[in-house]
Automatic annotation (TrEMBL):
Pfam families associated with the record: DUF4233
Family matches, as InterPro entries: DUF4233
Domain of life: Bacteria
Lineage of source species: Bacteria, Bacillati, Actinomycetota, Actinomycetes, Micromonosporales
Keywords: Membrane, Transmembrane, Transmembrane helix
TM regions (residue ranges): 21-42, 48-69, 81-110
Annotated protein name in UniProt: DUF4233 domain-containing protein
Length: 119
């Protein structure tokens, strides 16, 4: 029987690995969606400049790099900063703000799961 001072067992064999995988998957999906969004934004919005495309590609590359570094504690903080940068890229095009909000919510959920499972 677990007492009030003991954390609830998660039922996972390796909780840290599971949480790292969730963070990495979130960042990898974000990078994939950002790269896929370039062409529809250009076609529909029409105002996506070369600089904005470069920013989107850079954010996607940072997301992929961070997904591979989720073993390091600082990668979680860098992932949070990445969400902020994506939100700021909304100044370049409104659809990037929408993507930023969606992925900021997904990242907040990943952080919540991490806090619940790892304490």
């Amino acid at each position: 029987m677990t007492g009030p001072e003991q954390p609830r067992p998660s039922g996972l064999r390796n909780p840290q690995r599971s949480v790292r995988s969730l963070g990495a998957a979130t960042l990898a999906i974000e990078a994939f969606v950002l790269l896929l969004a370039i062409q529809p934004i250009r076609v529909v919005g029409g105002d996506l400049s070369g600089t904005a495309i470069g920013v989107v590609v850079a954010l996607a590359l940072v997301g992929v790099a961070l997904a591979g570094m989720m073993r390091r504690q600082w990668a979680w903080h860098a992932g949070t900063a990445l969400q902020g940068l994506l939100l700021l890229s909304g100044l370049l095009h409104w659809s990037l703000l929408v993507l930023g909000i969606i992925f900021a919510l997904a990242w907040a959920y990943a952080l919540h799961v991490r806090r619940v499972i790892l304490g």
